[in-house]
Structures are given as C-alpha cells and as structure tokens.
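Quality-control log, excerpt.
Job 1 of 2 completed; input and output follow.
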Amino acid sequence: MGCSRDDSEANARSVQVRRILWAILGLNLGVAIAKMLYGAVTRSLAMTADGFHSLFDGTSNVIGLVGISIASRPADRNHPYGHAKYETYASAGIGLLLAVAAWRVGVESIRRLIGGGGAPEVNAGSFAVMLATLAVNVGVATWERRAGMRLKSDLLMADASHTGSDILVSLGVIGGLAAVRAGYPVADPLLGLVVCGFIARAAVRVFRSVDETLSDRARLDPREVEAVALGVPGVLGCHDVRTRGTASHVAVDLHVQVDPEASITAGHAIAESVERAVCERFPEVSDVIAHVEPLDEYQQSKTKRWSEGV
C-alpha cells in the first residue's frame, strides 16, 4: 500500500528545497565572481581555482533545481514508485561537475609547476576576499546540511558536501597566499593541487551517496521494521524485510506470518495493519507491501534462516 501522505506536505517539501537552492545559487555566484575576478587581477592560480570551484557550486544548484522539479512529480503509470530518484540523478550530475573541476584545476596546477609563469600578487585585498567568501561558505554549508537532514534530501546533502569542500579549499588557499607573500611563490600551484584533491574527494563522497540509492542499498534497519510488524496483533512471525529508495521516499516489503487457521479476510486485515504501522513508525516510508503467510513448519524454518542471516 502507498502510505497516506498529504500531497500538500510533499509539495511543501519540494518548495522548501527549491527556495534553499535558489538562495544558495545567488550566494555561490557572488562568491565565485569575487574569487575569480580578484584571482585574475592578482594572477593567483589557487584563488582562481577556488573561484572556479565555487562557480561549479552555482552550476550544481541549477542542476539541483531541475532535478527537484522533476522529482516532485507524482507517481504515474510509467513511474509507479514516483520520480524521487531524479533527485539522485541530479546529485550524480553534481558529482560529475566536481570531477571535471578537479581535472581542470589539477592540469593547470601541474602546468604551472612545470612551466612556471611568475609569482602571483598577494595583498591585503586577497586575504579580505578569501576571508569574506569563507564566512559565506561556512554559513551556506551549515544551513544546507541542516536543511538536508531535516528534509531528508539527498540533493541538499550532496550540495552541502560540495559547498563544504569549499571551506577546506579556502582555508588552504589562505595558507598558500600567506606562503607566497612570505617569499614562496611555488606554494600557489602546489595549493592548486591541494584544491584539486579536495574537489576530487567531494566528488567521491557524492558518488557514494548516489550509489546508496541507485544500488538499492537498505535504507532502514530490518530489525526495527520487524519489531514494528511483530507488535501488530495477529502477527506471529516476520522475515525477509527489504527496503530501498531515496532517504525521503523509502519502499518496504516484508513477509508476515499469521495463524494457519485465519481466514483470507483476517490475514488481509492483519497485513494492512502492518503496513499502516510501518508507515506511522517511519515517516520517510512512502510504500509498504506485506506478504501474508501461514505460520507452519516450513515458514518457521524460513523465519529462522532469515533471523540467523540478518
């Protein structure tokens, strides 16, 4: 059965995610422009690379807006489980952009190390720009991660990881600027490589999150779902609990065992009670299917094998 969620609640979640992405898009574009312009003026590869990273943050917000718009569509004949995974596809797009950014920054840093190109100009303005944009990134990453956890949004969590990588990168760039000013110009391309590493690490984290959804990794502890089912009157056993989907749209199927003498009508009523109980216990669950079986000797052996394997 599909859990009786209020459509207005789902729409409200989608609206909240979109508003957050629009706000962060504006902030990311402002941060990117500041870093890239000042980096170009002072010929700082590390600052320009960091600005490029921030620009990709803005691009990922656009991808996220498109993804959440599609993901918010209701289930239809061709998508009976809904469109929630389009949010995951958008997260994969963000990961791909991060991978491309890491490659470009790495190539440019290596080119500068091998071929040279002169020392960048470092002044008080360089530090002012980096510190100001760092403060913005800290605020954005904190806000977005909290919103992602509250709304159970894979997209916001992926984008928060993207923005969070900017914080570490910016700290490294600030350290590199200080080293350049102290007379070590090679620190600029070296910090470019460090930036490359952080961007690549963020990409890997995003792809891992995407994999959890697309590979149908279990979303709920089967023991907790089993406990809910066993708490329903008439349920004598439970096994083969499976869960999958996105963090905010989890599908559950399980087998429940009842008295062999129970009528089909009674067994069906027990199954529906189990489905309602699971929906009420786990707000992130959007669909539950409970398969009813008579608790005979064969079914007891199935339950035992499953219990030993979990």
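Job 2 of 2 completed; input and output follow.
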Amino acid sequence: MDFFWYNSVMNNFKKVAVLMGGTSNEREVSLVSGHNVAEALVSLGKYEVIPVVLDADDLSALPAGVDACYITLHGGWGEDGGVQSALDARSIPYTGPGAAASRVAMDKIATKKCLDAVGVPTAPWAVATPSKPLDGSPFGYPCVVKAPRDGSSVGVYLVKTPEAFASAVADAARIDREKFGGEGEALVEAFIPGRETTVGVLGDEVLPVVEICAPGGWYGYEEKYNSNETRYPFPEDGFCPEMQRLAKAAFDATGCRGVTRVDFRVTPEGQMYVLELNTSPGMTSHSLVPKAAQKAGLSLPSLCDRVLGSAAHD
C-alpha cells in the first residue's frame, strides 16, 4: 500500500492544549503519552503547547483561548465521548473521533454490532450479565472474557477452564458496573488461536501492519507497557493488504476520524478477525502507532502534526 505523507500540515492552530491524565485506570500511561506528544509538538517550533493534566472528568483545568486540543487521555471520559462532548459544547477542535464514534468504539459490544452489520469479521461473541448469566463458555476453552467498556487490557481474562469462567465473568461485570453503572456486562469471546496484529489508520491512509509477539502468547497490561521482551516485527505476509482494507472498513463502520488503531487476531490458516478499536492510541515508547508511522517514514513530531491537522469538532 502506498503512503502519501505531506511535509507540513496546514491549519491555523497556534495555541494547542495537550490533554492528559484523567481519572481512568490508564491515567499513568496517559501522562506518558501526553508528555511525549507535547515534546513532539514543541519540537516543530510552530505551536504554543500547553500540557493540561486533568484530575476530574471536566474541563475546569483547560485555559481560555486555546485553538485546539490534542487528546492523549486513555480510557474512561477521554475515550467514551465525554471529553469530546465537552469540547463540542465549546466549539473547540480536538483530535480523534467525535463523541458518537468514541462511544461506539469504547464499547466493545457496540463495536461488535457495527462490525457485524458491515461484514467485517470479528471473533464470535456473547454477553453475560448478573440477571442473564451464561452456563459456561458457549465457545469452549480457552475463551476470552472482557469488561466491555474499559481499555489497556484492564478487566481482560484468558479463561482456560470451566472453573475459572464464572469468576472472570463476575469480575468483568463488576468492573463495568462500578465504572459505568447498570448491572454490569461481560463480553465473552471465542479465543482465536494464532498471531496478534494491529493496524493504525490515519484519516484516509493506512499504516503498515505490526505484529505483536508477546512472551507466552498473551498481550496483557504488563506485556503492553512494562515488558521489554515483547517484539513488534512488521510482517510481509500475503494477508497484510486485506488486513489493511479491513482496518479501514472497521474505521469507517464506527464513524472514526483522526488516528485509530485496529487490533486483529490471525489464525494459522490466515483468517483475520477484528478484536477492537482504540481511538486514542498510546504515544509511549512501547506504543504501536508511532512504530508503524516510523516504518512508513513518519517521525513522531510529523505524526503528531498530522493528527493535530485532522482536529475538528461536531
């Protein structure tokens, strides 16, 4: 696939706030992402960059007069449409999808429904609640149980035995209930054996496929952010162009804009399944979108410039 990077991004933004921190389980990762983005934008020499650490789910810390916001909040209010709605109300452009698309992509169950509707393959799934429990995994073992509205592998369990299933579902539903109200839901997925990959989409352009080779074959929170043993090669398999096409189809189906990361599993036979979308990808040293952009010839400052250039409000 060809890439058409531009040397500069045309916008009228001068005073840019980088929003970071927040109240979700991913606060510490967000702080790292935010500081990296702020430094990258400063290095371009054309923006007045204001790092803004949020300690509550509101914009009380946002200074007046900003031209745009670069969102590096991960999870919670930063990705569920909350901060997007607040910025829409102030008519301030921001990076990433709008509020409606953010709500869909943050909700793994809503994402599944969107993907199913347009024929993008996704892992077989079911939903369990305290009032409608499942009598064991409908997909056998191992299976995957997830809190459906959290991120960074928080509340995600690889369940290998029937004995562990009920407790995993209960814990995922508890996390969902405590964070988002209601009785709480747990998403149960068939475990897709094989390889894990991810594809970044930046507007109309699709980044190279990145493979995730985690120790033990499980890419959890520790493997994402703290392990130096996880490897990220760039595969050249024949499935890569089709995976890039599916990533863009998933991006479009959920109404995304800006930059979004689409996660896949690939069976040994080459069958691809979209797992989920991340509308505020990390910008840490372990993060995958910056790695893919670098492979495509785009430095971190240039990537951040491109993302900022796509900022808009609804």
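Post-run check on job 2. The radius of gyration is 19 Å.
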